[in-house]
Automatic annotation (TrEMBL):
InterPro entries (alphabetical): AAA+_ATPase, ABC_ATPase_HisP-typ, ABC_transporter-like_ATP-bd, ABC_transporter-like_CS, MetN_ABC_transporter-like, P-loop_NTPase
Species annotation: Oceanobacillus zhaokaii
Annotated protein name in UniProt: Polar amino acid ABC transporter ATP-binding protein
Keywords in alphabetical order: ATP-binding, Cell membrane, Membrane, Nucleotide-binding, Transport
GO molecular function: ABC-type amino acid transporter activity; ATP binding; ATP hydrolysis activity
Length: 246
């Protein structure tokens, strides 16, 4: 087990977006989160990376780091939580005035203060891994959406996080560009990265995941193997969602 979460709750004003969520993230495994729009998927992911602070919930990591959000949490603990994961956003969020290479090296150089030569080697290797070594001196606007998202993945990997988070990584892409991004994510799964993926791509979720979690209305309605949740869901709400989307 990499991370155990118990009793996670989050509201925006009177809108209870996450209601008493328990979830375990297994080391080296891929967990996909599916569910209708507005069900709380992105908020759950953002809580994992402390882009949102939970109102309640206890996070226990395999290295002993424990955060209880009902208690006061220090800046240092939040920083530790943030450093554990790398996030890949729907809209890439690349720095527009930096090249692909500079986007990947920025974090390790500026945040982690690593040595230039070492970071250069790391970035070249990662850009090669996502199939963009020949494009590393281009700027985001010179790249297709699929290429930009692959830079986004290389950039998150460059921080060497223990957990990779993907927030609908292909939903802003034209259909013909989706495959190249999914292929990169499948490669990472094969390399045993620990990943949590919010996705509408059910076929992809079925292929890449060890576990699928269906959310609706701020609750986890059902979770299990991809075969079970996607092919023979037990809960009516899951059945209805899958019928609508397939
Ligand atoms: P999903 O990813 O399943 O579409 P979200 O987690 O994005 O769902 O959103 C769940 C609910 O939380 C929605 O009702 C949304 O409007 C609300 N919400 C999300 N982020 C914020 C925010 N920063 N401020 C206020 N409401 C938010």
């Amino acid at each position: 087990m990499f991370l155990s979460i118990k009793g996670l709750a989050k509201s925006f004003g009177s809108n209870e977006v996450l209601k008493n969520i328990d979830v375990n993230i297994e080391k080296g495994k891929v967990l996909s989160i599916i569910g209708p729009s507005g069900s709380g998927k992105t908020t759950l992911l953002r809580c994992l990376n402390s882009l949102e602070e939970p109102d309640k919930g206890i996070f226990t990591f395999n290295d002993g780091l424990t955060l209880d959000f009902e208690k006061k949490i220090s800046k240092q603990e939040i920083l530790k939580l943030r450093q554990k994961s790398g996030m890949v956003f729907q809209s890439y969020n690349l720095f527009p005035h930096k090249t692909a290479f500079e986007n990947v090296t920025e974090g390790p150089l500026i945040v982690q203060k690593r040595k230039k030569a070492e970071v250069k080697e790391l970035a070249e290797g990662l850009l090669e891994k996502v199939g963009l070594k020949d494009k590393m001196d281009l700027y985001p606007h010179q790249l297709s959406g699929g290429q930009q998202q692959r830079v986004g993945i290389a950039r998150a990997l460059a921080m060497e996080p223990e957990l990779m988070l993907f927030d609908e990584p292909t939903s802003a892409l034209d259909p013909e560009l989706i495959g190249e991004v999914l292929t990169v994510i499948k490669d990472l799964a094969r390399d045993n990265w620990t990943m949590v993926i919010v996705t509408h791509e059910l076929q992809f979720a079925g292929e890449v995941s060890d576990e699928v979690l269906f959310m609706d209305g701020g609750y986890i309605v059902e979770q299990g193997s991809p075969e079970q949740v996607l092919k023979s869901p037990k809960e009516v709400r899951t059945q209805q969602f899958l019928q609508r989307i397939l």
